[in-house]
Predict the structure.
Amino acid sequence: MSPSAASPPERTLRIDGMECAGCVAGVQSALSALPGIREAHVDLASGRAIVAASDSDEALVAAVRSRGFEARVLADPRRSRTEAEERQRARERGWKRRAIVGIALWVPLEILHWATHGSHALHGNLAVDLTLLLGGTIAVVVSGSGFFASAWRAARFRTTNMDTLVSVGVLAAYGLSVATFVAQRLGRMEGQPLWFAEAAALLGIISLGHWLEARATAKASATTRELLALQPEDAELLGSDGTTTRLESRLVRRGQCVLVRPGGRIPIDGTIRAGRAAVDESAVTGEPLPVARGTGDTVHAGTIATDGAIEVVAATDGDATSLTRIAEIVERAQATRAPVQRLADRVSAVFVPVVLAIAALTVIGWSFAGRPLDGVLYAVTTLVISCPCALGIATPMAVMVGVGEAGRRGILVKDAATIERASRARSVVFDKTGTLTAGKPDVTAIRPSGGSTGANELLAIAASAERGSEHPIGRAIVRRAEAERLAIAPATSFRAIAGTGVEATVEGRLVRVERDAEASCRVLVDGTLVGHIDVADAVRPTSAAAVASLRHLGLELRLLTGDRRSRALDVAGAVGLRETEVLADATPESKAAALDALPAPRVMVGDGINDAAALARADVGIAMGEGSALAIETAPIVLLRGDPRGVPAILDVAAQTFRAVRQNLFLAFVYNAMAIPAAAFGLLGTRGPLVAAAAMALSDLCVVGNALRLKARLARERARTESMR
């Protein structure tokens, strides 16, 4: 398979007109039906779809339009966020306006209705009934416009959505009331009630529920906006003559230098050229304590130089910083759909037609019983009370909260499916170097094998071969050679051999540095052993606490490393792992095989090139943020702080998130299972439509409230944990 076939391009679409979870399901279905689609994630909150497909832009737009929505492909998704937030605010304002109009009309109409209902002189009075008609008409036109437009758009494309149920119910109540009003003027249908107040109430209360839902969604999705707000809008560009010029930080280009004054936020990713400062990196890593940074150190956009001025050379363009990338990952994860959501999607896909059929049968059944008007009333109640909005938002609301909270803890989750699998984890496997250990080993011994090669020459040869390596042992050898001011010769034909070592041509000789049973590595020149080099790596101070927390959760644990068993057992003893939980001398292939033998879902935690295969093979791959770019790209979860305690933290967040998802789905299913029969059989009485509107709004608020409760609990736990560090 060609690379393009294996990895189709990813594009972002702006979609206008989506109002409910049913709209999202329709667009998702249309995109997923395209022949070149690999995956599609549609998000109601941002009005966007993230699509990986080989289909043309025109085909993607046409698929969305087939469901009655306008769409366009965004050339630069980063610059569309302000627009998306404005659409979100406009949607919130629209529902607020409809709720105010509906409720403001309903209350006086309801008072008038009941005040005149008991009066023989005023009951059926033309002026009273005209007032009810006028108020109900205004409510239907103003508050109902959003529902009717959405339902009509769906009908034009031969489909239905949740607004179809509301629209049919409201128009049935309003239409029957108009017919009754006219008939009563002709001397017929005397004593029959008018439901104009109920129509206003339906629209006002349901709009109120949608408004509160839109507000809660905006709050739950605020993580991206908060992250992007950390990058300052302006930067001080430092000229060659020492003068500074202010410009927008997104316009800074790679290689340009910016000045960051004490207390200022760093506007770009880059390397410090001059100066020293204690840098608060909590925006990127979640680490609450400032870290000393000086010349040659890397710094990131959004972090703060707390006590010194520094000059930073940009490593990327200002609109492509790590902070922007983190925001994109969080936003994408919040837009993805967890596997458990598929059940809700399947139910929603057939729900509206089924409810319409139940409503029709309700009218027919009560008509046969000689009560056709009651049948219409109960059918309206059935249509309104059955709207499955709560079912549609049950999973996305909780996932949005969980992913956002993980981001605030310095943990990037790339998709909802990963966090669902993490919530059910049964085993956790750790790599050693760079994961349980600091990943910054030092050379502790240099042992030539005799002959003419001395210790310094042995170190220089190994450093020349290892200069292109990303492995911590290779970096330690190069660092020691540089500290000894040894001459490091240029190397050619460099090749990293996963799980074994490296080889390169140095001054015409083939040099191999490979793992060894007697030491950390052995050095061979043209096939001849010239010596051994020992490298030791300190255990991270937080590793033991991470292992203890995971063991408390009842998970099966393993240490999986390519290092020698003696060193692996030393590290295992220091962090609280048993000898039987250690697998040493492992190759990338044997790591993958060992993973397969553990109970699923399996979590793999690693950082290096030789962990990439295991990270990809595991059910949940977690990469240390300080690890290689390959491991970070491979793993769906990244610990930006590089702290092993992030592993039990994300597993706990995942478990709580999907506990809330299951609670939400239970509430939604039970609500509909009880409400629909009660409405159809007339158990809600003559005030059924009003009770239905309140019940539907309440079901939405229960789901939203449960998600916000999760958000508050996770925030309290995060604050308590950070206060103890």
In short: The radius of gyration is 32 Å. The longest strand covers residues 528-536. Residues 51 and 656 are 29 Å apart (CA to CA).
